[in-house]
């Protein structure tokens, strides 16, 4: 198949040798969607909810969160929408809530489980939103399988509460970011997660002992790429062993230069910044699924 002649639609793209690849988008804010035609994406691979929920008041406001999630699901129609639960703490403090800032290691799902009153509000908003589309919930900074289990239990408790109040809801699939190195090394033990998504921004900082929010750490990113790829290759093998859907949403996936390596280790679902959709699409159709170039050279 010549490059650019892909027969797939709905954001599905084929490599030059006709292997299907999904291309989704990462968003921070629902308003970003106004500029994106839903037909150009397979769905939303990562919505960073900490941008919609940016204050203590938002974190406590179930109705406001529901309205934002509903808007995003409506945009996507029946395409999958992956909303990540609040990844606060670390490089993403929530003023007021995370004040004084939590220890750098108390972030993501760890902070949510330590402050379940925040997680419960978000869980209820997500459970209610799930009836409006194809929602998937993603947990940030998961380190151990027990964290997935605890959060799933919390969702079921809140679902029971909604049932007793007669409020319609659905329990969505619950998956996880793979962005803490030991979680990636033990990925085959995460049997209770419904799906995986590689977060190479955090993986890279933890693998290189650098800090992603420090300007100087940029100098580690480029030389680290081959090591990160090797690391992902091992994690991919474990993910395949347990048969879970896998995607990648770290910014490495938005870099056309990195695409051959990511295809070669078997990744078939990329979630990228909306402004990179076009570049990544054209890079995919010019490559074979093993990452080799189909035309030119
Ligand atoms: C990542 O860590 O790669 C990621 C996608 O999440 P964030 O950049 O929001 O930490
Ligand atoms: Mg991250």
Automatic annotation (TrEMBL):
Its cofactor is Mg(2+). It comes from the Bacteria. The keyword Heme does not apply. The keyword Cell division does not apply. Transmembrane segments: none annotated. Residues 14-284 form the PEP-utilising enzyme C-terminal domain. Keywords: Kinase, Magnesium, Metal-binding, Plasmid, Transferase. Belongs to the PEP-utilizing enzyme family. This is PEP-utilizing enzyme. The chain holds residues 235 to 531 of 531 of the full protein.
